[in-house]
């Protein structure tokens, strides 16, 4: 590994883990993302703000910010929130693996992923839909860039979706290992920003059995329809609502873990922020479909069924219930959709978007 530039130390930004995925058997585990390692919300917000500060402020408007599911849904929203300032012509749109029953803008492949197909839905609001169609700048946000092939695929997909006014493309990542290859492939109107850039090489050990691949490659609607009126980014937003935080209470110093589920992470993160500002000792993490092996940065793992009715495995990592006074699990599906095994293991308080909070 060779580091060219780093705004934060590598040790602050990431650790390592083994992916249970023969397409790519390793993972840089972020220490500032709040997915596989529980992180204080203030630390996550600081990383979002720092990354947003690297993006040119004078990009031609309108601007489309795209966050990549699952890992960068909340990161993309945080960058959008920090970047938008007083403007009203910057739209955030998250990719998704959930079919919402609304028209698609485009779709593309993340080829090395455990679930390669991404969907990008058309914004539901006519104003936001118009801004996206006439976007002159695009900011693509992900936690990591290795070769940049996913960004290249997404850029081509946006072009094929008749976004004909794009003048600038900015690739924004926490860590960038691409050595400029993605920017060069996209063209002279592309640039990149990151908190760390460098290069790495990886040689698989000879004679090691490939990992058992768990069933997580599903893109679809599931058994529980998602309410578009409660959308936080899959259908496009210009302003972020912290609905889950509206009546949340805590004790000073109370040790609280807030857990998002799958792509439902931005609203739960804003709840975690609210509780931290109110005086609690808060960590934020997320249920994920990404299969990792115990070892290195992954000290604990719990597997269970997803809460969307997709019939796939979900996981939480590095969570010991004894470390917390209270665990809040946030779900955009009904509480009864949560696997009883997960409830018995964590004894969480469940906050569902399907009920009045």
Strand order, sheet with most strands: 1-10-9-8-4-5
Oligomeric state of the chains in view: single chain
By DSSP, the count of extended strands is 17
Mean pLDDT: 91
Explain this structure to me?
It is built from eight helices and 17 strands. The protein has helices at residues 10-13, 41-53, 73-84, 126-133, 149-160, 181-186, 266-277, 340-346, and strands spanning 2-6, 14-19, 26-30, 63-67, 90-94, 104-109, 117-121, 137-145, 168-176, 190-199, 255-261, 281-287, 292-293, 301-305, 313-317, 326-331, 349-352. The longest helix has 13 residues, at 41-53. 49% of the residues are buried.
How is the topology of this model organized?
Blueprint: E1 2-6, H1 10-13, E2 14-19, E3 26-30, H2 41-53, E4 63-67, H3 73-84, E5 90-94, E6 104-109, E7 117-121, H4 126-133, E8 137-145, H5 149-160, E9 168-176, H6 181-186, E10 190-199, E11 255-261, H7 266-277, E12 281-287, E13 292-293, E14 301-305, E15 313-317, E16 326-331, H8 340-346, E17 349-352
Parallel strand pairs: 4-5, 4-8, 8-9, 9-10, 11-12, 11-16, 16-17
Antiparallel strand pairs: 1-10, 2-3, 2-13, 6-7, 14-15
Helix pairs in contact: 2-3
């Amino acid at each position: 590994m060779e580091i060219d530039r780093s705004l934060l130390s590598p040790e602050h930004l990431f650790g390592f883990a083994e992916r249970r995925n023969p397409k790519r058997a390793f993972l840089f585990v972020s220490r500032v993302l709040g997915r596989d390692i529980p992180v204080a919300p203030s630390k996550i917000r600081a990383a979002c703000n720092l990354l947003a500060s690297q993006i040119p402020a004078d990009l031609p408007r309108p601007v489309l910010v795209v966050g990549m599911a699952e890992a960068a849904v909340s990161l993309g929203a945080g960058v959008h929130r920090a970047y938008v300032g007083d403007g009203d012509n910057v739209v955030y749109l998250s990719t998704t693996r959930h079919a919402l029953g609304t028209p698609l803008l485009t779709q593309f492949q993340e080829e090395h992923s455990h679930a390669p197909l991404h969907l990008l839905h058309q914004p539901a609001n006519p104003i936001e839909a118009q801004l996206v169609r006439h976007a002159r700048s695009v900011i693509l946000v992900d936690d990591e860039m290795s070769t940049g092939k996913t960004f290249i695929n997404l850029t081509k997909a946006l072009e094929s979706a008749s976004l004909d006014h794009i003048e600038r493309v900015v690739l924004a990542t926490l860590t960038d290992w691409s050595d400029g290859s993605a920017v060069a492939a996209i063209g002279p109107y592309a640039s990149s920003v990151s908190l760390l850039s460098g290069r790495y090489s990886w040689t698989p050990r000879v004679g090691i059995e490939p990992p058992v691949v768990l069933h997580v490659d599903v893109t679809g609607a599931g058994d529980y329809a998602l309410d578009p009126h409660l959308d936080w980014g899959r259908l496009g937003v210009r302003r972020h609502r912290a609905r889950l935080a509206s009546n949340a209470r805590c004790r000073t110093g109370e040790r609280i873990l807030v857990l998002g589920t799958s792509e439902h992470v931005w609203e739960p993160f804003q709840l975690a922020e609210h509780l931290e500002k109110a005086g609690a000792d808060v960590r934020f993490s997320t249920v994920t479909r990404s299969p990792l092996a115990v070892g290195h940065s992954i000290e604990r793992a719990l597997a269970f069924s997803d809460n969307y009715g997709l019939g796939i495995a979900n996981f939480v990592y590095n969570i010991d219930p004894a470390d917390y006074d209270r665990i809040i699990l946030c779900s955009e599906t009904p509480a009864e959709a949560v696997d009883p095994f997960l409830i018995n293991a964590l004894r969480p308080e469940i906050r569902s978007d399907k009920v009045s909070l």
